[in-house]
Amino acid sequence: MNEQLQRCFSSAQLNGLQLKNRLIKAGTFEGMTPEGKISPRLQQFHERIAQGGIAMTTIGYCAVENDGRLNENMMYMHEGIRRPLAAMIESLHSLGTKVSGQMGHGGGFSKNRHLERKRPLGPSFGINMLGVTQGMLFCDAMSHSDIKALIKTYQRSAVFMKSVGFDCLEIHFGHGYGLCQFMSPKTNRRKDEYGGSLNNRMRLPLQILEGVRHSVGEHFPIIGKISLTEGVKGGLDYDDAIEIAKLLEKGGIDGIITSGGTSTMNPMIMFRGGNILQPMLKAEKSALMRLMLHLAGPKLFKDYPYEELYFLEQAKRIRDAVDCNLIYVGGASSNASFETLMQHGFDFIQLGRTLLSDPDLPLQAQRQQTYTSRCNHCNECVATIEHPAGIHCTRFSPEAPTILQ
Ligand SMILES: Cc1cc2nc3c(=O)[nH]c(=O)nc-3n(C[C@H](O)[C@H](O)[C@H](O)COP(=O)(O)O)c2cc1C
Ligand code: SF4
């Protein structure tokens, strides 16, 4: 194995957290928390990934409050789930894997029918795209006291998540969710100190980072996922991402994950490969939602052919701009790609789809210099998010592993 791959498969530190290699499971909302409750399947899913040799797994989309859930089948961080959450994390630790929790908030994008507030809250009043089929047509603008409360909510969640055993927190700053809505000139039309210039739009995300840091202490790893581009006219773009990364670094973040796209406006930039419109139409049970998909789908789900390391060139610009840990995500599915990423100075690599198709990827890639994942980027797994069994690869079974030698 060459020097770069040796680096990839050797242990590394993330703000004092010892990771056995540089591969991290990307947050992929598992759809295994019916009515917000942790199912045994969620634990089994992550145990299977842990058995494959990943250094750290990420529990996808841990909403920081009830109203931060995109739907009522997501869990949110509260005492009611302490016991099963702690047991799951303990079990993953016993398999030698660290555990990160992705702190999420949907902002003004939600179809959660159990909201405590009248409407979902975002930076500005507008259409709640996700809620339309549930009759939840609009989202409201957050007041200053809502903003203060949200910072406290993130802090409360961070304290809970640290106490329950998470080794790392990943704040979601991307993909069009709550904090991204504040960062984006497309969705933030505020006239106060939280809107306007990029510095103003970054005010709340940075206050949240500061609050979370204060809550967990200097020596606890905090990483953040950003969108390099939102992929829509008038939205955040590649040049903004450089400034955003610099601000997050100045704000004390330990690592930045360079993703892209928005679930709300242009999701295919995030994935590349097979268009998810047809699989989603097939999976959708609501006739109204199917109609919406037929009408809005072609504009929302644009074609972006898959290419290996599709964010590399733009992520390299972030590498040049900041010194903090940089965590690459997006189409890293072979040892050749891991080698390239190590060569370009990335510190860690997050893997999404390849671990759904090949949970044993880390172990297998260590054994086989020419390793390439069998994932073909058809993206059918994306349409399984609301499947009763939760997300899964539709092509390959994790029970039929690729490790043969
Ligand atoms: C089924 C599925 C669910 C996902 N859910 C999330 C999520 O909850 N949060 C998130 O930040 N990204 C989510 N993603 C995006 C991945 O984290 C990752 O950014 C994307 O799949 C590209 O990486 P890959 O090429 O290694 O798959 C999801 C991806 C898939 C396939
Ligand atoms: S369904 Fe399987 S093969 Fe297709 S993109 Fe998802 S993980 Fe890869």
From TrEMBL:
Q: Which residues form the NADH:flavin oxidoreductase/NADH oxidase N-terminal domain?
A: 13-256
The domain of life for this entry's organism is Bacteria
Annotated keywords: Flavoprotein, Oxidoreductase
Provenance organism: Ketobacter alkanivorans
Check the record and name the InterPro entries matching this protein. Answer: Aldolase_TIM (IPR013785), NADH_flavin_oxidoreductase (IPR051799), OxRdtase_FMN_N (IPR001155)
Keyword presence, Flavoprotein: yes
The protein's name is Oxidoreductase
Which GO molecular function terms does the record list?
FMN binding; oxidoreductase activity
Q: A Pfam family name for this chain?
A: Oxidored_FMN
Give the CDD domains listed for this entry: OYE_like_FMN_family
